[in-house]
Amino acid sequence: MQHFFFNTDLGFTILTLAQALAVLVPLLMGVAYLTYGERKVLAAIQIRKGPNVTGPFGLMQPFADAIKMLTKETVIPADANRALFLIAPILTFALAMIAWAVIPTNNGWAVADLNVGTLYLFAISSLGVYGILIAGWASNSKYAFLGGLRSAAQMVSYEVSIGLVIVCVLLCVGSLNLNDVILAQRHVWFCIPLFPMFVVFFISALAETNRAPFDLPEGESELVAGFMVEYSSLSFGLFFLGEYANMILMSALTAILFLGGWLAPFDIAPFTWIPGPLWLIAKILCILFVFIWVRGTFPRYRYDQLMRLGWKVFLPFSLAWMVLTAGFLMATGLLPQNPGLAHTPPAIASGDTK
Amino acid sequence: MIVTAFFYIFAAILVASAGMVVAARNPVHAVLFLILAFFNAAGLFLIAGAEFLAMILVIVYVGAVAVLFLFVVMMLDIRFDQMREGLQRYAPIGAAVGLVLFAELVATLAGLKIAPVEAAAPAASGLTNSAELGLVIYTRYIFLFQACGIVLLVAMIGAIVLTLRERVSSRKQDIAVQHARHPADTLVMADPVAGSGMDGQILRAPGWTPALDKPAPARLETTS
Amino acid sequence: MNWTLAVPELVLVLCGLATLTIGVLGDKAKSHAGLATWLSIASLLFAGVLVLLSPSGIGLGGVFINDAFARFMKIVAIGGAILAMAVGFDSNRRAGLRHFEFPVLMVFSTAGMMVMASSANLMTLYIGLELQSFALYVLCAIDRDRLGSSEAGLKYFVLGSLASGLLLYGLSLVYGFSGSLDYAAIATALHAGAISPGLLVGMVFVVVGLVFKLSAVPFHMWTPDVYEGAPASVTAFLAGAPKVAAFALLIRVLLGPLGALAHQWQLLIEIVAVCSMVLGSLAAIAQTDIKRLMAYSSIGHMGYALMGIAAGNEAGTTATLVYLFTYVVMNAGAFACIVAMRRRGEAQTDIAALAGLGRRDPALAMGMAIFMFSMAGVPPLAGFFGKLLVFVAAVKSGLWVLAGVGIVTSVIGAFYYLRVVRVMYFDTPAEAFDARARSTSAVALVSGLATAGFVLIWAPVMAAAALAARSLLAGTVG
Lengths: 354, 224, 478
What we know:
Chain A: Its main location: membrane. The complex is a heterotrimer. By secondary structure, chain A is an all-alpha fold. Chain A has helices spanning 9-45, 61-71, 82-98, 117-138, 142-173, 178-183, 195-208, 220-223, 233-258, 269-273, 276-297, 303-332. Residues 342-354 of chain A have low confidence and may be disordered. By secondary structure, chain C is an all-alpha fold. Chain C has one domain. Chain C has helices at 7-25, 33-53, 68-95, 101-117, 122-140, 147-178, 183-192, 197-214, 222-229, 232-238, 241-255, 262-285, 290-311, 314-339, 357-360, 362-376, 382-396, 400-426, 438-452, 454-474, and strands at 57-59, 64-66, 342-343, 346-347. The model of chain C has no long low-confidence stretch (mean pLDDT 89).
């Protein structure tokens, strides 16, 4: 299928780079307009107008913001750990970008169609904590450090339940490949049979991205801006972009795990005319709207409540649901069979002697 | 070719960062280099075709264990000068012992070849290695898998028994009690005559106590 | 998947979990330590009965072996655990340790020892060892408000992790150079091909890791501090059953899969044994703390017991097994006496506190004297038979140096054991101890009778040990 040139090392490299650009450029545009969208939606919730001066309907606002951010002076605190201080925002931003390598935008369309794609995403999202933790420590400031510590504890706590939720989904799929996860939802999206897990996942995604009502790492009313209090200019901009890119990523993950990814809601004519990537984008937009909606309507959690919710509610609940799912699938024989697993390898029975 | 290049990149960074873990003066830097080392080890696993192990290494070690390391090390107030003092005193002895051990190791391993590789290589069955691992862990080695679970349980019991303190003084939120409260238990709708006040009476529900952790009081009987 | 082999372990763990559940769900205001201890002793006894009834064979995917050797070691370990638990029954209460987790952790630790005794695979070895050790680390630090206990726990944990790391490194080398984790396959591979240096390095690391758990020289540094710092009931446990389990592993690995390397490890074991015996006897002389004295004494005892392994044959293995049996019995009794050393609620560990015990409390002094004489190897007490057997085995294998050093150090060792007896009977009496609890007295009585009357139970113990050694060396399961 591929041209001969693409089978050489050089061709392969160029192809991969082109694919990466094809994903990242729209993503960055999306991030830019997500900031605009958030301000507009929040404004609507609060009965204001939002940005409306720069360009028609304020549509040039993201660019104005970007230019302002780029032209400002980068301030590095005197006692900060310079190298780490600068690495932290780059790390946050880069992690939010590289996760997109495995997101399938149509049947089999992904930069890297890994067969452990789910684990890859989970791994990348669990690394996000480093950017914040390092930023908090390297700033050499009390507020930043407190924000970093809060964030570390918060993200590690919610990762546990996210992991269990993903296990529930994978039990129903029988594969770790994200494309297989979507294909397994041809008949019914997982948000219906696994509705409670869908809710747990979405709330944990809020906590994982440090979004309201779990935005304690920033907590502007008590920690001024938490881990980013010392950041300015481009380094602040990278954090900002990283946060929004993470939001889009978590939305994409929610769409893939529970809302059928690029699948049309019904497998009949008018729906199937619309191409898969558009369905995925539409689903991501819906979830992003909920992200912003939640921010506009819910007050911030207290820290102990946050921890209680993660460890004492979500963890046992998702664990119990996982056991339930596994038991149900075993009892009804619905457990997906990996084609290679039809026979038990003989090695397993060996080793016993009388 | 690309794979070979990446192998050497990962391996070189791995070795360099492992060295930096030991050499770094700042413990936070040491932990960060450790994380970098984990990460590159995961890269090597990936190249070796063990993608499941690679991801688990990142998720468990980099994403959770090392975060807690970093968490603790950042909060510790380590005095570098004191540490270096001890180091300088013991460095000659340590270096001598290390040198002898290293020489022995080189001497022993000089004529080394990894012996029966064929015994270890399983036949390819066309499964992904996550499926292969699952098959082995949950069937043949189920006993060891469960034993690992008990080991973790013991660690958990240990963490609780060594650190949990039931503080009597701290006031805890009991959400069940909060939800069980009813407006009628706590509110009194009084209709005093203008100017007369409540005659200095404070109306409380019978059984009202100031503590938060007491059961919700019974319904109020209005007293006049 | 012949899981019936592991029924005792499974039952023991389930009982531990049930006890834990009872403790967690029970009334928070009350201490459930007493109930949990009774339940744990009952489950250990039950597991012991199941061990006796358990069938022989290799099962559970080839990782678990049950034979006469495993049964012997498991029974001795369970016995040691029960005695230690009974010792802790009263001493914990007086020391203010009211955690119901205490006996539960002991149960899990014992389950780990049983898995160790039954290992037929390097992974089983490691997991059993870690299960046992994790529980012990926690137990050492369980008196968390006392500095000594925390220090003991931390020291044991840090050094134990280091030893585990060395052990794992060794195991991975053995795996890499033999191509298998199963003992049987390793043995076959080793007998078939030339022995590569990598395997030797791996073997040395494995021995180092296991010898650390035995607290034999040169990996003994942690022992005195941990024994002194840990609560007395934990020390009683630590000094008994875990050593048996570590010996079970060492014997099984060295005589089984690494049997082909006998010439190489024999020298290693001999050096460790000689160093342990010498250090154990010389360093103990200067001790004034009875728990530290017991620590050095146990280091010395490990040296004597290793002598049997060094012999590397059936007689030597039998001797080691009998030695371990007598050691566990004497040790539990001695610690029952140490736990009884309490004055106005304060635990006494100074040897001087025993002054004139012969007149204050003749029964306790009598017990302590029996254990001290036995440890010194005075006939006809239990310790004598153990020592005699290992010396004979060493001499028969031509290990004259080893036997000679053993006899000299026994004589030196007798000096400090007898010093304790002298303090008890010839020094001016100090203030009396608190009244003993019945459980403590019971342990001392049982151990004392077994030690003093070892001649009477000599035949069955010897027969069981010989059967165990034979089953191990024959390599057949049955």
